Here is the input.
Amino acid sequence: MFNELIHGYSDVCVNKEGDVSSVIHDAIPVAYLIDPSKCETEAYHVTIDTGRFMEGEWGRSIPSREGEMNCTAITDIDMDYYRSLYEAAVEKFKGLE
Here is the structure.
């Protein structure tokens, strides 16, 4: 059931080690909120481009180093910490059918 829940939600990408991996974007900010010391961050000015919404696109975030910094971007995370949180969450889904 867990695979069904995340199917279509995750992206396939290549991580820093060159392995194909799956990104679940919302989990990283949650991990940061639980323990910010496990993440590296950088300040950015981010605008949201919604001009293409009517053309079937969902918009996009546009980061910049210019302008007032209005976003904290997580640029790295302690993967052992993240993995332990993720595995604990998966354990809670076991048996849900």
User: Anything to note?
Assistant: The two ends are 6 Å apart (CA to CA). Residues 50 and 75 are 24 Å apart (CA to CA). Helices lie at 2-6, 27-34, 79-93. The first helix runs from residue 2 to 6.
